[in-house]
Amino acid sequence: MEWVGTLNFAINYIEEHLSENIVCDDIAQSTFYSSFHFQRIFSLLTGMTVSEYVRNRRLSLAAQDLLNSNIKVIDVALKYGYDNPESFTKAFQRFHGVLPSQAKMHGTELKSFNRLTLKIILEGGSVMDYKIVKKDSFGVVLKTRSFTSENSGKEIPMFWSDYFSNGMHRQVCGMMGICLPGVMGQKDFVYGIGCEEKYVKQIPEGFTIVDIPSCTWAIFKCVGAMPDSIQSLWKRIYSEWLPQANYELLPGYDIEFYTEGDTNSKDYVSEIWIPVKEK
Length: 279
Hints:
By secondary structure, this protein is of the alpha+beta class. It has helices spanning 2-16, 24-31, 35-46, 50-68, 73-79, 85-96, 100-103, 152-165, 228-244, and strands spanning 130-135, 138-147, 176-179, 189-196, 208-212, 215-223, 247-249, 254-258, 269-278. Helix 1 crosses helix 2, helix 2 (24-31) crosses helix 3 and helix 4 crosses helix 6.
């Protein structure tokens, strides 16, 4: 469960730097994860993005400062990373439902957002179908776009919709969705839609050939309607399988593999591939 301890270390890092100008890259570097993988694991396990967590913690602590001291609103705003009182007031009111000036009044109802501590609780057994497969390197043909962890939840499904509505699947079938390895220090990550190169006779304009290196894959079978089934499986991989497995996650290419069929069917079959190595 080393990576659970690593994420708790990252949360400690966040707590120690809440009144400083920290960004997700700083936090990820403290864990030696890429920014993309750190943010992905964090959001899967907590249900919120890193920036949401930081913002909620800061606004919670800001209310305590206002309530328990004579500190000025502008000083609290600057302490927690807001450039001006106006932006702080808007964020504070969205979170607490009252103005910062009202927080100074005893009896005002405020919201508390406590720090996270990640724990893995092993409960009743449930079946996860997976296999460990060693694969040689192979090429894929992809249409790629850049995303951030903040916008990927909404914009990647829109990318898939564009892919099919614009007829790109007739040039390169949308068999795979692939997250390319994140680069340390870069906020964006690259996601591609396509298939193995061997299935493409001619590379269309605007598509890219990407070589997936030889590695060992943990391949998980997913049964159920999209996108809920595959999103649920991603969370189970991180929260149930990885903490107990004799394998650890490697930074690399994460692959979602889609079969033909009705993606809205409860019997629809897809797969998640993650690169791993034995502990």
